[in-house]
Amino acid sequence: MTGALAQRERTELFTSAVNAVASSLGRSKPVVLYDSRNRPIPPGSGHSYKRQAAKREGSMQNWIPRRLFGHQAESMERERIAERSINLVDDDPFAAGIVDGFATTVVGTGLLPHPSIDADALGVDRDQAREIQKAMQRVYRSWSPMADAAERMSDAGIQFLLQCSMVEHGEFFVALPMIDDPIRPYSLAVQVVHPMRVKTPSDFHSRGDIHDGVEIGSHGQPVAYWVKRSDSGRYLSDSSGNFIRIPARKAHRWNMVHGYIQRRPDQVRGVPFFAPAMKFFRDLHDYLDAELVANVVTAAYALFIETGASDAETLAQGMMYDDNDGTGKDLVRYEEIIPGMVMYGDKGQKPHPISANRPGTTFPVFVKEIKKAMAMALNMPYASLFHDVEGVNYAGFRSAMLEAWRVFGHRRHWLSTVYCGRTWPMLQEEAWLRGDLGPVADFYERQPAYCSCEWVGPPKGQIEPVKEIQAEVLAVNNRLKSRRRAISEMGGGDYRTVFDQIEEEMRDLEARGINPSVDPGEPDTTTDESEENEP
Q1: What is the pLDDT of residues 153-193, one digit of tens each?
Q2: DSSP string, 246-272
Q3: Are 114 and 293 in contact (CB under 8 A)?
Q4: End-to-end alpha-carbon separation of the chain, Å?
Q5: How buried is 448 (Cβ within 10 angstroms: 0-12 exposed, 13-18 middle, 19+ buried)?
Q6: What's the predicted TM-score (pTM) here?
Q7: What is the C-alpha to C-alpha distance for residues 73 and 107, in angstroms, rounded to an integer?
Q8: What does the DSSP 8-state code read for residue 337?
Q9: Which H/E stretch holds residue 135?
Q10: How many CB atoms neighbour CB 187 within 10 A?
Q11: Where are the domains of the chain?
Q12: How far apart are CA 264 and CA 68, in angstroms?
């Protein structure tokens, strides 16, 4: 009865709406809607069409994706992908190069802080703001060499390791303990945790609040992380007694930072970047290995000699390779191919050498197409990802480099927000408590204004520096580009910080009696004689 009543109410509502439209159009009769076959459309009916993407016939008959039910099934699948990604990076030269290339470009020698405190919000003048910013930079320079809890890496090395982990594992875990050690200028330390150690204890699988090692709160926020203890050379079971529960935060300070790029709602762990193209990486690795082995065998085969039945060599081999050694068991014959091998055959045997025309003429094209698909899965231009510039002109390579830097810039900004943006306020808080920031009285009340900071990494390379800098100058002078954008694109950071540095340098030069004016001169428009003679 309830369903029929609801249907009747919808029908009345639809009729009222149609009559209202008809009256507004000046008609005396109600408006009736018709379909493509000239049939009246009853109220409440909908028109939808079957899509090709949902059909189960032809080539799509067996395409039935398998859903994963339960957090344990999702965890097992993600862990298997992570294990394969680790093996891929260890054994595949392409994967290893991509991991190192990403980390070298995104982090390089390290992201350095450029404090940019909001002087207007704090009510301080620019000179006071500069002094506070200088003090913050001194704090970071003092802390960075000893940032690693294991005392092996600087903060730049930690950033490099985190970016490698992002590509290989799709995530990173960083614990932030406070270590009281006289050798350390500050107690804050960074301990990188292997992602494979974060998992759900076996006796806690029935708990609904632990998803793949992450304890979830009522709003989906991470409450704590379950980290398996180090095995120290002996096997430890996955029971909860061998795990450490690390709270995500303690008040406003972070105990554990979990970085990953979330691509789906309710996602709590990261997925390796190689996951979409992992099969391509593995199959291409096996294919290249097979081609290499085939060519090695072909090169090692030197000569085949046919011998007669009464040849002493034949008789000796016949005695040596008797089918039975007196024990009733057949002998096992081993085959080995070494360079320059000469093989003696029996009478009537003919050599069948392996053809030396491998790989075929389509091999480079085929491999390049596979690598293009792998590059697309990683959202990177092929020329930049695999360092293959053969047949690429200046415009094409510049376009590829710009596309690549969009990805690198996003990764750099993301790393500076997730990792650097959380360790920086904690470090400055400790420095303020130690009295190393100078006259700052309201740090807790205005912490966001004090801890505003931009992290700048090594700038992108320039193909033709003179031409590119001249183009930037012309664009700025002709009001086609702002100085802020030009400075940012060249890796200079915040333009206000750059202007402050220039102003400070000018005052320092004048105080030292050095003439700061420099004649930029005219751009070199001469053409090299060798360039003129080029075809």
Answers
A1: 999 999 999 999 999 999 999 999 999 999 999 999 999 99
A2: EESEETTEESEEEEE---STT--S---
A3: no
A4: 88
A5: exposed
A6: 0.76
A7: 35
A8: -
A9: helix 126-143
A10: 14
A11: 1-41, 71-273, 275-322+339-348+359-377, 462-513
A12: 15
